[in-house]
Task: inverse folding
């Protein structure tokens, strides 16, 4: 599935709540599906973001898919390295149900 | 799906390679499906473990499912806290193919 930048929240060094708010904003702007993406040490924070979203803000949220992988990055010293990635696709429950009934 | 302890690798503070070896040992002992599990800051290491396994040791490996969640833990000071979890289910490709053709 192609997911363009406008539907994506990249989790990094800010507090969890910043990313929760970013997700809520995307859903409120009319997106029915968003992707939460993180690399390396930020991965636990991406999972926390999804947990907090579902517990406190958007209870009808469904985790549609979780993809794990790795990315090649270049360090400051020029050496290549590999970093783990996670991509969590979230959808509102009503949309998920619609997609099932369309099959 | 019920996954009993004998099929599970819990990723913690040891180096990635320890967990890779643990997974290879399980597959070599005849298991066709194993689960790699981690909490909190060890989650990126669980994803690295799976990446290293697939790249270097068991190329026919398939990620069957990735589950994210959270667990309530009790800190040393008695306070409750919540920690993110990941559960990655891995299967040998031949088994995955068998399961598809059985449907």
Result:
């Amino acid at each position: 599935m192609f997911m363009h930048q406008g539907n994506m929240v990249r989790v990094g060094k800010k507090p969890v709540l910043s990313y929760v708010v970013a997700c809520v904003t995307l859903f409120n702007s009319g997106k029915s599906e968003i992707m939460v993406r993180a690399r390396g040490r930020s991965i636990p924070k991406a999972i926390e973001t999804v947990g907090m979203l579902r517990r406190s803000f958007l209870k009808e949220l469904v985790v549609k898919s979780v993809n794990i992988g790795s990315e090649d990055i270049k360090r400051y010293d020029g050496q290549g390295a590999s970093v783990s990635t996670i991509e969590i696709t979230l959808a509102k429950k009503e949309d998920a149900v619609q997609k099932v009934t369309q099959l």
In short: The CA atoms of residues 43 and 90 of chain B lie 16 Å apart. Chain B touches chain A at residues 40-41, 43-44, 47-48, 50-51, 63, 66-70, 82, 84-86, 88 (CB under 8 Å). The two ends of chain B are 17 Å apart (CA to CA). Helices of chain B lie at 16-28, 43-57, 93-102.
